[in-house]
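Late entry, written up from scratch paper. The run itself happened at the end of the previous shift, but nothing got recorded in the book at the time, so transcribing now.
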Amino acid sequence: MKKIYYILFVFCSITTLFAQKKVSVKQANTLFASKSYVKAAEAYEQLPQSREVLQNLGDCYYYNFQMTNAVRAYGQLFFTFKDSVKKEVFFRYANALKGTKDFDKGDGIMGEYLGFEQNTPKFMKNITRNVPDSYKLQMMSKNKTNGDFGISFFGDKVTFASVRNADEKAYGWNDRPYLDLFSASVNDKGQLSNIAPFSEVINTKKHESNATFSSDLKTMYFNRSGEKQVKIGEEKVAMVKIYKAEFVNGKWDNVTLLPFSSDTYCVQHPFLTKDGKKLYFSSDMPGSLGSFDIYVVDVNEDGTYSQPRNLGENINTIQREQFPFLTEDGTLYFASDGHQGNGNLDVFMSLKLSDTEFDKPLNLGSTINSEMDDFNFILDEKNDVGYFASNRTGDDNLYTFVREENKQQYLVEGEVRDMKSMQLLPGSTVKLFDEAGNLLEEVLVGKDGSFTFNTEPNKKYKIMAFKDFYIPAEATFDTSQKGKVYIDLQMKVESYYDAEDIINMKEDGTVLIELENIYFDLDKWNIKPQAAEVLNVLLGILKKYPYMEILIGSHTDSRASEMYNLRLSNKRAASALEYLVQNGIDRKRLKSMGYGESKPLIICPKNDCTEAEHAVNRRCTFMILK
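Output as recorded:
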């Protein structure tokens, strides 16, 4: 989505800096600080490629959704200065890559940001199968460059925000006109018709967008950028605020500012429930979890408002949550780039659990969500039609959709947690098997530790959860019930080091099976009876945990040459591996490595170890790989 709206509206008077052929970093930074991203990008393109220049250049393109150019700038930034790049730039670079459909590299960069791997194509394939509905889309205007978004229901019409007032002054962020509010009808072909701007009481020289109306159409809430510019840090900015207007004597009048708007943070994307009792919105006010969170206030009968309430961590993340919309049954639809999705803003739905709590969000799948920004979803649930906005073509555009229910859903969902600490385990793999043991589907769970599978009626299934250094957990279930089935499974996996006293995690994160040492005769590598006794303990562990994979390491002391010791240790490690294979362990689960004298436990400065110290350095290690 064009950043003309959902972060900050910034208005600064900038003197012309491009009368000269050459520009300085200071001049470019002044443009960047004022959010004049088009001109700032032109300036940065002329400058030497320092870390600051490349990051700001990438941000200029990213904030105007020119993802190909953003990838070019960020790519050079990461190639040259990756070690000093801030973590939040990893997030933007990853989404820019996904915006160009480079999901493999985007997932890799996002994995570095999150701390666990993602697989976006597999996620979107799975989630699209699991969502209860699919959608048929159609663009609502033949002109793809109007910058239309912010659509809402207005009786039997709609309202939306647009930059189609081409004669107006351009806005520095993207060099396009300021936003105004329009009303329109939607004809039988799904196209906007009879488009008309609101009066000058509503549309001013500032930005206006995102209107929402009471059921009797006599009250209107909408966004307008603030009059006052406030210095925050080194920048002068004007915040987005929510205003209320009343329809009196056939026209909109009595425009007033809502009390929880502010000069120091934004409140945006208002949505009024049908009964008029609650107003939802998005804000970065103090107390938000991240960039923007979704809040709600009560609209009291006397016209006052309660204190804003954050919808909590089920809905909000450290990234952006915006554009709330609620159906009459309380299902919440919203846009987010913090929950796992296809890249950039995706549309999510969340069922209402109580007056103040919503269920975990479900991505609406790839028939609605693209690799670009998809947002501002509204729905007429009785007729299964609705509208949303997307910049998948490069500019913000409105789409109409028809919702079609997928075949009968038997949905199983759950979480993966550590059995001891009950902490969620992002990065776990969950696999779905049929009754015969055939693998049907697998997912890599995101940061919320949750998974979802779509199954068929009257069948039996098994689910297994896997995590490196953990014992796989499994559960069985069937779908013999009628209708939609929601099965909540808590997949609690136990770490190997919690389950076994002889397995321990070291400070460096390695997990070792700690056994008695294995001794070999001088210059020999065959397994003696004493060594076999030790390996039989390891054999029991491997048979008890059939998914465990290990690395057998062999170390020597520092006597003899380095090459001799390396060869000898390789033979000893391989010999131990062969013993396990001969006793029934699958070779694919085993690796061996000889380290020679390269990793002594005791370092003797003059290579004058005692016999006891040499004995300590002669050892075998058994490291768990997964």
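Confidence is low (pLDDT under 50) at residues 1-20, 482-486.
(Scratch paper discarded after transcription.)
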